[in-house]
Recover the amino acids of this structure.
DNA sequence: AGAAGGACCAGTGGTCCGTA
DNA sequence: AGAAGGACCAGTGGTCCGTA
């Protein structure tokens, strides 16, 4: 069972108690959320409205009523709601120390999302409903309900292309991780650096990044990130222009 | 060239003048809208706000400014904006008489949408943008801009399953049309009757209506209609229940 | 400064219902 | 009554930016 091993890669310290939240009825699929899941220490963060103008005021519908007069629901003392620890660049197999999470853990989150998607698909099939082929809002909602509160859309979308490199060329991905760790680069720099080898892969395969994603069983469930798509397009145009300037500009460039 | 033949199946009388509207730039695909397209006689229908409460008031953004002080833009006399003629049940090859449209014309609209989709896809590929695989809102918008004002989403969605039967079992579809024409049934009755043979086809192919749509090159670009999906699901449950009551209820029913 | 994620927003899929 | 389609609406994909 790799689940506990990998979960252990997430540096805890936010909460000590494994929490098994309500599962959506009918979940018959493979075991995402089947292992232990942890929840960050929770306390009502007050009704403090965020700064942004809220035109649509997303209403009260799902608030669990028990407003101000509420104890500390998980009994662990009045700590504030916290975020996941930030990622640091780790080598393959390396566990992050301190209040950090490593990249194996990051990639594990993508596998978990895949398992949640499979569960959502199974439920949809049983019910004869539309069956998602990608990790959609519905899947993120399901993951949250299943207790995986550490999974969220902005985070997963942010690192998709890093996961893509890991899927498509694990050796190159590992080498990049080692190089960036050695140089002491931060996660943002590593993340940026993941684009280049992906564009090179696309170049070798006719520039069709969608086809590349779709051909890979674990990657096909993720939307191609906009920036990756744009980089591939820009590079293809560059390559085509260079090719024309070399050949003197023949016909039949840019085959579709 | 079948385009003009089929276009002729649409009973005109709304407008005499072929109108070639602005094409979206870069449209390099096959020839939807390449033949003649007609526009219904147009006249500003005034700003009369519709009855429904309009929370979002879709604003002025694209109105072509020239408000009240406007001539009759297509010079054909002040007639009112009209709708397409209603469909009637026709046999294969039969042209509808009077202010009616026949079913060959209906199915031709689906082929036109497919051609518009191909154009949208070609543009997207050229630009390195996301490429739709289905007839989306974007495609309907494109069709309208290309002058095919007679194509709209509610209509196309309404008859998708009729087109599906035409694609999947043309003989059955033709037989149904002849039978319903002979009985003098209206379009609504024919449309309802198209569900049953489709469910029978699904039954023969393991109940996976999505797979059936996706396996057909001209049908795969259309979303499976909700009602058809529900009917297939309900019938599968019925069939499974019957099978259990016959077999006495074994294991391994409802294979997914 | 670097990073996590709540919340927003433009445009979608789906179809109702006022219209002809 | 039967039918065509403008317009609506809940929930989506995408990501900004106030937060820690």
């Amino acid at each position: 069972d790799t689940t506990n091993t990998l979960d252990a890669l997430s540096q805890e310290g936010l909460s000590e108690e494994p929490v098994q939240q309500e599962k959506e009825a009918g979940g018959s699929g493979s075991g995402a959320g089947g292992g232990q899941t942890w929840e960050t220490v929770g306390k009502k963060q007050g009704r403090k409205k965020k700064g942004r103008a809220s035109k649509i005021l997303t209403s009260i519908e799902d608030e669990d009523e028990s407003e101000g007069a509420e104890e500390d629901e998980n009994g662990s003392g009045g700590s504030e709601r916290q975020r996941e620890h930030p990622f640091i660049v780790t080598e393959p197999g390396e566990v992050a120390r301190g209040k950090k999470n490593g990249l194996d853990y990051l990639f594990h989150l993508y596998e978990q999302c895949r398992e949640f998607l499979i569960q959502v698909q199974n439920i949809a099939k049983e019910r004869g409903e539309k069956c998602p082929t990608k990790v959609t809002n519905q899947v993120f909602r399901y993951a949250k309900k299943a207790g995986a509160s550490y999974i969220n859309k902005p985070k997963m979308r942010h690192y998709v292309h890093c996961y893509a490199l890991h899927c498509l060329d694990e050796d190159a991905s590992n080498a990049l991780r080692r190089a960036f760790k050695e140089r002491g680069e931060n996660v943002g720099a590593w993340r940026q650096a993941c684009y280049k080898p992906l564009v090179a892969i696309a170049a070798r395969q006719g520039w069709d990044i969608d086809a590349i994603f779709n051909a890979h069983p674990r990657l096909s469930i993720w939307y191609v990130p906009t920036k990756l798509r744009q980089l591939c397009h820009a590079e293809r145009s560059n390559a085509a222009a260079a090719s024309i300037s070399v050949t003197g500009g023949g016909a039949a460039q840019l085959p579709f």
User: Anything to note?
Assistant: Residues 50, 52-56, 58, 83-87, 152-155, 158, 186-188 of chain A lie near DNA strand C (CB under 10 Å from a C1'). The two ends of chain A are 45 Å apart (CA to CA). The interface with chain B takes residues 122, 125-131, 210, 224, 229-230, 232-234, 236, 256 of chain A (CB under 8 Å). Residues 1-9, 12-78 of chain A have pLDDT under 50 and may be disordered.
